[in-house]
Design goal:
Keywords: ATP-binding, Nucleotide-binding, Transport. Belongs to the ABC transporter superfamily. This protein is α/β, with parallel strands linked by helices. It is built from twelve helices and 13 strands. A six-stranded mixed β-sheet has the order 5-6-7-3-8-9, sandwiched between helices. The protein has a four-stranded antiparallel β-sheet with strand order 11-12-10-13, covered by helices on one side. Strand 6, helix 6 and strand 7 form a beta-alpha-beta unit. The longest helix is centred in the middle third of the chain and has 16 residues. The termini are far apart. The structure holds adenosine-5'-triphosphate (ATP).
């Protein structure tokens, strides 16, 4: 397996439905050996992009390739790409095992492969139960098992964390990490960064059909800079002192009656400034970078940024 084998390359992809562009001149690359989060708010164009990548929707312009070819031009797509776009398409009366065996028959895989992937996704104990009794999380696992049948180099998963409890997410993280460590390409979409933050090491963030950021998750954290939370009986004076030293007003928020939250400065700077101005401080702390806040800033959905305002506590 060489690195080129599993690269996803999206170049200038566009799709318009009626008057509105769902995807507009979208360009990004997903590298093998890592887990990439494909992120954007609801309606950003994630599913449309994945459907174009998988040959289910014809782009108006641009091209998406997997391992150097368009999906429809891949000679044995099931061995190259495993995809989960929706998890509702199971026959309710069929057992998980029967569902997978049908896929084995259709694709020419041995039936033993069904049991292997059931083991892999932790569904062996439920293999002989009808799917109608499966929880949403179990359906997610079965969908993932279906995608893994052909031992694909590339995995494309639409909202895989949806329906999983924290234990399920931890399990998914281990599984995807193992698959990526084997050199596979893993692309997972989500509209909630916090849901996949522990899962991914790279991100492609889209908004209104366009790429607004791509790169390592750690770079996203650096984009935000440090965040300081400070309590003082004189928040207005401290606010004014900060702006006098050049801190932009937009970086200072009042997060409580005696509390300010300041981005882009360090605790040392705030402490020294308060001392110089003789402003008493009751408390001063560096906050963990709130990636969700960065995400909302990038995608312009600041009205949803309530969790960020909460973090001063
Ligand atoms: N078949 C279609 N016909 C008309 N409009 C569509 C169609 N598919 C998607 N759209 C529109 O394109 C835009 C992008 O939708 P898409 O489902 O790709 O976004 P998304 O990022 O996957 O959102 P979500 O997280 O809600 O699934 C939306 O405005 C949607 O209403």
């Amino acid at each position: 397996m060489t690195d080129d084998d599993g690269r996803i390359v999206v170049t200038g992809l566009s799709k318009t439905f009626g008057p509105a562009a769902a995807v507009a001149d979208l360009t990004f690359t997903v590298e093998p050996g890592s887990i990439t989060g494909f992120l954007g708010p609801n309606g950003a164009g994630k599913t449309t992009t994945l459907r174009m990548l998988l040959g289910l929707v014809r782009p108006d312009a641009g091209v998406a390739t997997i391992a150097g070819r368009r999906y429809l031009d891949l000679p044995a797509p099931g061995n190259v790409v495993g995809a989960v776009l929706e998890t509702g398409a199971f026959h309710p009366a069929r057992t998980g095992r029967a569902h997978l065996r049908i896929y084995c028959t259709v694709n020419g895989y041995p039936h033993s492969r069904a049991d292997e992937v059931l083991d892999l996704v932790g569904l062996a104990a439920a293999a002989r139960r009808p799917v109608r009794g499966y929880s949403l999380g179990m359906r997610q696992r079965l969908a993932l098992a279906t995608a893994l049948l052909g031992d694909p180099r590339v995995l494309v998963l639409d909202e895989p964390a949806n329906g999983l409890d924290p234990e399920g997410i931890a399990w998914l993280r281990r599984l995807l990490r193992d698959l990526a460590a084997e050199g596979r390409t893993v692309l997972v979409s989500s509209h909630v960064l916090s849901e996949v933050q522990q899962l991914v090491d790279h991100v492609v963030i889209i908004n209104r059909g366009r790429c607004v950021r791509q790169g390592p998750l750690t770079a996203l954290a650096a984009l935000h800079g440090p965040v300081v939370s400070v309590r003082t009986p004189q928040p207005d004076r401290l606010h004014a002192a900060l702006t006098r030293t050049g801190v932009d007003d937009s970086r200072i928020t009042r997060s409580g009656p005696d509390r300010l939250r300041v981005t882009g400065v360090h605790t040392d700077d705030v402490g020294q400034l308060a001392h110089a101005e003789r402003i008493p401080l009751l408390w001063l702390a560096a906050e963990h970078t709130d990636l969700e806040h960065v995400f909302f800033t990038l995608t312009g959905n600041s009205h949803e940024a309530a969790p960020a305002a909460r973090t001063g506590a």
